[in-house]
Amino acid sequence: MGGPTRARDTKAGTRAFIGGEQRGEGINDMTIRLAGEAGQGVESGGAGFASALSHGGLWLHTHTDYMSRIRGGLNFFQMRVSDRPLWAHTEGVHILLAFSPEAVTDYGPHLVEGGALLYDDSLKVDQAAVTRRKVQLYAVPLTKIAQEIGGEKIMANTCGLGALAGIIEYPFEFVADVIKKNFARKGDAVVGGNLKVAEAGYKVGRDQYAAKFDWKVSPLKDRPDRMQINGNQAIAVGAIAAGCRFMSGYPMTPASSILEFMAGHAKKYDIVVKQTEDEIAAICFAIGAGNAGARAMTATSGGGFSLMVEALGLAGMAEVPVVIVEAQRPGPSTGMPTKTEQGDLLFALFASQGEFPRIVLAPGTQEDCFHTTVRAFNLAEKWQCPVIVMTDFYLTTMTRLIPPAEFPIDRVTIDRGELLTAQQLDRLAEPYLRYKDTPSGISPRAMPGHAKAVHQTCSDEHDEYGHFEDEDRANRLKMAGKRWRKFQHIVDDLRGPTIYGPEGAGLTLMGWGSSYGAMREAVDILNARGTKTNLLHFVDIWPFPEAQAAPLIEAARQLVAVEGNQSGQFAHLVRAVTGRRADRMVLRWDGRPLSPEYIIEQLEEAKVHA
Amino acid sequence: MLDVKTYNSPIKVTWCPGCGDYGILNAVKSALAQLEIHPHEVMFFSGIGCGSKLPDYMNANAFTTIHGRSLPIAMGTKLANHDLHVICITGDGDGYGIGGNHFISILRRNPDIVHIAENNMVYGLTKGQYAPTSEHGFVASTTPEGSIEIAFNPLATAINGGATFVARGFSGDPKHLAKLIMAAVQHRGYALVDVLQPCVIYNKINTYDYYRERVYKLEETAGYDPADRDAAWRKAHEWGEKIPIGILYQAAGVPTYEEQVSELRVGPVAKRQLAPLTGAQADALRRQFF
Ligand SMILES: Cc1ncc(C[n+]2csc(CCOP(=O)(O)OP(=O)(O)O)c2C)c(N)n1
Ligand code: SF4
Ligand SMILES: [Mg+2]
């Protein structure tokens, strides 16, 4: 069996390992981080190395951390590789390929004991940042090799990646394949040069350091095609699968790549995509398109969502289907544009004046992003209301390898709700009432343009025809009652939390959205250590799926809310609805994503034992 | 010609007696009747304000939106279903003030949308505050010493911003206004019709008499050619003793926004039959991530 192998017990300090075979009580996976300035090829190099690993049949989890600038600063690309599916990143790094001195100073402390710092020998690094922690220093003349063998300094990155592969003794052919593919556009000379440089780096890595480095990665026998996809891409794929016909947006990190992806696929998948003058216009365009009968969406982050708030209420009042993706980043205000947080939950739940039905969903994984987006379009049309899909920087940019079967793009359900067809309208005997008062609260919808269904849509309180009726008491009770009935029934279409881990556990972690992976791995680790732990993870948040959730929450012996925010917003919601107060909270609001280690450390600090 | 009563709505009109908006309502109905556009073939969009209630007083498809946002909502509808005639009705505060960013953006886009701005140079519905188009020194409840800002010039802004049809009407001459609206509807592209609309309650300066003494028709002006952008620019700045009404500017042959969106060539996206992607399409999408 292949895969990354840790073949010694770090604490014992012995160094006997055998590549490809797992020995001892190793952690059968490892984390590689590339770090340097923007423009130094951290992301492209990392992505290339990741595909070399994935082509070997290995499982991956990648995430990035970058500064809000185009050149300079400090960025990293991190990949965790394993011979089994991965759900989260780890805080500890086993090998750090550093392209700048700051990368060493800032990230050296993240290296685990016995881990290695790999860098160009011309780089002046602060060795104290690493040496006192029993970290190995591998200074390789990357630039010199690049210059001498490839004739180009710029190939130092390729040399570094070659060295990396050599150190972990991952077969060179996989690296070579990626080089051939990625540089093909640039011609044979460039491909050849990079191959020679990578091979030279590989030899140095393998011959000088492999024997000292304890983690190895070898390809697996089984190498099926897997999708490497991030949250934003999964949302866009979901939207395309669901028949989204219109998307408008205004660029804002971390939501922009959805708009970019949709624009890039517009022609092929028949979607009108529009960058607008601001986020107010973005949601207004989507509302206009949604009301006209096209499945419509917009995507933004908290700042843009703030601008959309008034129109969100319009969609609620006028009963227009629209899907809004809110990719959170730390606030308040501009906050930390390239960091992560789950700080907008209660804002999304209650944004805009007055009371109206809305649906809030928070997918936890890429698979969830896909399915949730499809559902969001169906729910928006069925209930004729805005649906907010909440993600955050981490989920939008994080990738995992996922079997393609998890994305049944051609087998999704498209449910347009009570949308009257032209034939149904032709046969209409009575005058068409856009806001007909019905038992479910849903008024059959007609697209504007049919002779039998001339109608008005209105932001003021209105009568069943859609005409202004913003004074009358009885009408107000009727129409507000109709909208509220929808809200009460929506919950029947929503799902309770996913449960992971053993029943009757002494400790229950509770969370929502992007923290799924970190919580799931924390649960595995705790159970392996003998602390019987399980997890309640919520995707469907509002209307709160009380019937399914309340018994599970009540049954929790010790309930720990895990959230990427400062105040425990979801815990507040749960307490407001169910009366159950979380016994503890594990919160993170430093802009960094929740990880299994962080959760466990916090539990240990709080002396939480089951 | 259709019967103008076709467009009558059962809703009681709530404008003040003598309000300039009545003339605009009549002109809109008359223009649609003459063009034989049926109520289901047109969709009105308005914001919030006295004038924005106009669609409610019509029998036609309409969306009364929120203050200042009718233009982007109308754009979304036009891009989803360009078979509909789209007419936006805004106030001056609504269209040029709070919705100002949308106004300057739509000028560059040239969608086939008619924009009728009921320009009473005051905020009517909120009871008489100054507006972006109020004349310098306009005394109102929030500008007791007179407004310090100079007035916004919508026509010059529209010409400068790329509008392909720019006209000014006077609600005291609904027949002339109806002709302008007909020309605007027939124009392929964004068409602004700014309407001098007396507010008999809150604007004691720009009254019916004020306008009757000053307005003159460009089409009766010898040698005036609306295709001449420089001449239009000069007319857009003429204000005071003489005020031009009529078509100031009209460019021919500029493609509309929707004509340039490749997905719309085969018809409105709102009318597509929705179905899951085919297996081949799904595979192609998945393969991008291998
Ligand atoms: C966001 C928002 N701000 C303020 C208002 C209050 N408001 C309603 S109409 C209006 C101004 C109306 O002026 P104008 O657009 O010129 O229309 P008029 O009433 O003069 O026809 C204002 C400020 C509102 N409805 N929404
Ligand atoms: S306040 Fe002015 S604009 Fe409003 S209805 Fe009365 S006259 Fe017309
Ligand atoms: Mg006004």
TrEMBL record, chain A:
Keywords annotated in UniProt: Oxidoreductase
GO molecular function: oxidoreductase activity, acting on the aldehyde or oxo group of donors
Domain Pyruvate/ketoisovalerate oxidoreductase catalytic: residue ranges: 38-202
Keyword Chaperone recorded: no
Residue stretches making up the Pyruvate:ferredoxin oxidoreductase core domain: 507-597
Protein name, UniProt field: 2-oxoacid:acceptor oxidoreductase subunit alpha
Biological-process GO terms, alphabetical: response to oxidative stress
Segments forming domain Pyruvate flavodoxin/ferredoxin oxidoreductase pyrimidine binding: 238-478
CDD domains, per the entry: TPP_PYR_PFOR_IOR-alpha_like
Pfam families (UniProt xref): PFOR_II, POR, POR_N
Top-level taxon of origin: Bacteria
InterPro entries tied to this protein: 2-oxoacid/accept_OxRdtase_asu, PFOR_II, Pyruvate:ferred/Flavod_OxRd, Pyrv/ketoisovalerate_OxRed_cat, Pyrv_Fd/Flavodoxin_OxRdtase_N, Pyrv_flavodox_OxRed_cen, THDP-binding, Transketo_C/PFOR_II
UniProt organism field: Candidatus Segetimicrobium genomatis
PANTHER family: 2-OXOGLUTARATE OXIDOREDUCTASE SUBUNIT KORA, PYRUVATE-FLAVODOXIN OXIDOREDUCTASE-RELATED
Keyword Oxidoreductase: yes
UniProtKB/TrEMBL annotation, chain B:
Residue ranges of domain Pyruvate ferredoxin oxidoreductase beta subunit C-terminal in the record: 199-264
Stored InterPro entries: 2-oxoacid:Fd_oxidoreductase, OFOB, PFO_beta_C, THDP-binding, TPP_enzyme_TPP-bd
Pfam families the record matches: PFO_beta_C, TPP_enzyme_C
GO biological process: one example: cellular respiration
Domain Thiamine pyrophosphate enzyme TPP-binding: 54-195
Cofactor: [4Fe-4S] cluster; thiamine diphosphate; Mg(2+)
GO MF term set: iron-sulfur cluster binding; metal ion binding; oxidoreductase activity, acting on the aldehyde or oxo group of donors, iron-sulfur protein as acceptor; thiamine pyrophosphate binding
Keywords carried by this UniProt record: Iron, Iron-sulfur, Magnesium, Metal-binding, Oxidoreductase, Thiamine pyrophosphate
PANTHER family membership: 2-OXOGLUTARATE OXIDOREDUCTASE SUBUNIT KORB (PTHR48084:SF4), 2-OXOGLUTARATE OXIDOREDUCTASE SUBUNIT KORB-RELATED (PTHR48084)
Protein name: 2-oxoacid:ferredoxin oxidoreductase subunit beta
Organism, as annotated: Candidatus Segetimicrobium genomatis
Lineage of the species this protein comes from: Bacteria, Bacillati, Candidatus Sysuimicrobiota, Candidatus Sysuimicrobiia, Candidatus Sysuimicrobiales
